[in-house]
Write a structure and sequence with these properties.
Length: 637
């Protein structure tokens, strides 16, 4: 097991140690794992390149650290507890031994499909245990997984498959989510019309929907694994070999394939899982995220399994068959640690107390949140009514690029404060800088959040585009990793995340680039141009406000065009990226040089046009007045 912090003194001591001697700090933790060859250097780095290597020269297999390292003591303990969408359907449990055998069988299957070390496998699956099996089977043979969230459209899936040049796609006939069924295989079929790299599609049967199987390309999961051995020797990989690619949005249109490598990611997710949730042997841990996002990768799959934990995987949604579902699951499995997003808390809060008063919730010890700022009202509701005033809340700040949690309370040890992620974990060195990159070293300051020293979980590159990696994270401020977040530090040194300072918006914890949504809107034949900004939304945190300039209106009029724009965004990205508000405007506020002044649109969407700041560069002030007149939210002038 990785070391656990037990007291405030222990935290201070570990933090100091990680500052004064980061290499020996992380090496001691890494020593708890099974390496087939020890590393040569703990850390080599420079943020200019950038180039970061942890435990270089070290050889290991991450699945040996999940299985072989734990099986002797934990073989018969549940690894995955799976709760299906429909509570009437039987649940499933896979012990460590059972999961190990399934992973090996599927690893052998992949080998038979000629997947080898370094090959990419795209995974587009619902939340079933086989999704985890698929990821670990890739890791077992040194292949690189690229999980695509099953809410993405065919076009987005195709982009990701092509960018990673995946050879194999793993999917299912469909997926259940509440009352909806997502036709995953049909979406894959559509995506593959524009992908030439894919040789094989393996289809897991979940919904029994009627689907087409393309002769020579498509095979059923159950046929493919039939007869495969439950033994598969682990491929020896290098610490810096790629474990996975996971796409995320940035401020330009094209999604970025964030690359994580094996050794550092393993050490970092295992260490942070154990400490942030204060996980103890035998506890049942439940993270409600989808494995298609980094939270699921790090804190449903890798972090928990590396700790020999029991990780609960839930196929459904919080509100079906009723808004008490999460709490029923907590009581049913006696969940000890519960981790969710503020948007889920706000939506359940708004649906009333009747769904929680008859729940016990007595097993809960730690509550977590992630993905977006949590407002005080939601924090208190979570604390009082779910935690019943006895469970600390860990507000965990991190990103796809950081691999694991960076700033978070250690529950029961670091006193919490609503809406503050509190203090950095050992090994993490935050720094706040102003727009010019000057460090703001006082306690009570606001500015841009950067990190000045590498940690093992840091992303290594963007797949196929290292220049963009440098440009996005390491060029804004010299020798610093720039997070893209604004932050406040208070008199106690506590950090509070204020939200993105770039053109990225956070809708229900989903990260979306405004340019990506604009591209989708602009693809609509009647649209000339558009600008998308976020606005405060009571449940989603931020909603999507689109200002759209149309050439002419079609027969459906304004309503018709709004509908078809939403549909276009659904088709090109996914339903979660659909704008909440679409205002048709005569023009966009632009500078004389033709740049859209988003600042003005943001102000209007926030409902406050009383102080638009410097508008001397504005080409046409009349346009702004017209936009305010037609605004879809109330605007203070
Ligand atoms: C962005 C990263 C990390 C897993 C889920 C999201 C925002 C994340 C918090 C928090 C305030 C947060 C940031 C960050 N964010 N956690 N506790 N408080 N904001 O991963 O999709 O890579 O998004 O989410 O803005 O940059 P992601």
């Amino acid at each position: 097991m990785v070391p656990k912090i037990h007291s405030l003194g222990g935290y201070i001591h570990e933090y100091q140690k990680s500052l004064t001697n980061p290499e020996s700090f992380w090496a001691e933790i890494a020593e708890g794992f099974h390496w087939t060859k020890r590393w040569n250097n703990v850390l080599e780095w420079d943020f200019e390149g950038p180039s970061v290597q942890w435990f270089s020269g070290g050889k290991l297999n991450i699945t040996e650290n999940i299985f072989e390292r734990n099986l002797y003591t934990l073989g018969n303990q549940p690894a995955i507890i799976w709760e299906p969408n429909n509570p009437e359907e039987p649940n499933r449990t896979l012990t460590y031994t059972e999961l190990y055998h399934e992973v090996n069988k599927f690893a052998n299957t992949l080998k038979r499909l000629k997947v080898g070390k370094g090959d990419r496998v795209a995974i587009y699956m619902p939340m079933v245990p086989e999704l985890t099996v698929a990821m670990l089977a890739c890791a077992r043979i040194g292949a690189i997984h690229s999980v695509v969230f099953a809410g993405f459209s065919a076009a987005s899936l195709a982009d990701r498959i092509n960018d990673a040049e995946a050879k194999v796609v793993l999917t299912a006939d469909g997926g259940f989510r509440g009352e909806k069924i997502t036709p995953l295989k049909n979406i894959v079929d559509e995506a593959l019309e524009s992908c030439t790299c894919v040789e094989t599609v393996v289809v897991y049967q979940r919904t029994k929907a009627k689907i087409n199987m393309l002769e020579g390309r498509d095979i059923w999961w159950h046929d493919a694994v039939a007869g495969q051995s439950t033994e598969c020797p682990a491929e020896e990989t290098d610490s810096e070999d790629v474990l996975f690619i996971l796409y995320t949005s940035g401020s330009t249109g094209k999604p970025k394939g964030i690359v994580h490598t094996i050794g550092g990611y393993m050490v970092y997710t295992a260490y942070t899982f154990r400490n942030v949730f204060q996980y103890n042997a035998g506890d049942v841990y439940f993270c409600t995220a989808d494995i298609g996002w980094i939270t699921g990768h790090s804190y449903i799959v890798y972090g928990p399994l590396l700790n020999g934990a029991q990780t609960l995987m839930f196929e459904g949604v919080p509100t079906w068959p009723n808004p008490g579902r999460f709490w029923d699951v907590v009581d049913k499995y006696q969940v000890n640690q519960f981790y969710t997003a503020p948007t889920a808390i706000r939506s359940l809060l708004s649906l009333g107390m009747e769904h929680i008063i008859d729940k016990k919730l007595s097993s809960l010890k730690v509550l977590g949140t992630v993905g977006e700022p949590i407002n005080e009202e939601a924090w208190h509701w979570y604390h009082d009514h779910i935690g019943r005033n006895r469970c600390p809340i860990v507000d965990t700040w991190w990103q796809t690029e950081t691999g694991g949690v960076m700033i978070s309370p250690i529950p029961g040890i670091i006193p919490t404060k609503p809406s503050f992620a509190t203090l950095p974990l050992p090994g993490i060195q935050p720094i706040i800088v102003d727009a010019e990159g000057k460090e703001l070293s006082d306690h009570s300051v606001k500015g841009n959040l950067c990190i000045r020293f590498p940690w093992p979980g840091i992303a290594r590159t963007i797949w196929g585009d290292h220049a963009r990696f440098r440009e996005t994270y390491f060029s804004t401020f010299k020798n610093l990793y720039f997070t893209g977040d604004g932050v406040q530090r208070d008199e106690d040194g506590y950090y509070r995340i204020l939200g993105r300072v770039d053109d990225v918006i956070n809708v229900s914890g989903h990260r979306l680039g405004t340019a990506e949504i604009e591209n989708a809107i602009n693809a609509h034949p009647l649209v000339n141009e558009s600008a998308v900004v976020g606005y405060p939304h009571p449940i989603k945190g931020q909603g999507i406000y689109a200002f759209v300039v149309c050439g002419e209106l079609s027969t459906g009029g304004e309503e018709g065009i709004r509908k078809s724009i939403k549909m276009a965004v659904s088709n090109l990205i996914g339903p979660f990226a659909r704008p909440d508000l679409i205002q048709l405007v005569p023009g966009l506020p632009k500078t004389r040089s033709g740049k859209i002044m988003r600042r003005i649109l943001r102000k209007i969407a926030e409902g406050d046009a009383s102080n638009l700041g410097d508008i001397t560069t504005l080409l046409d002030e009349e346009v702004v007045v017209k936009i305010i007149d037609g605004a879809l939210v109330e605007v203070k002038r």
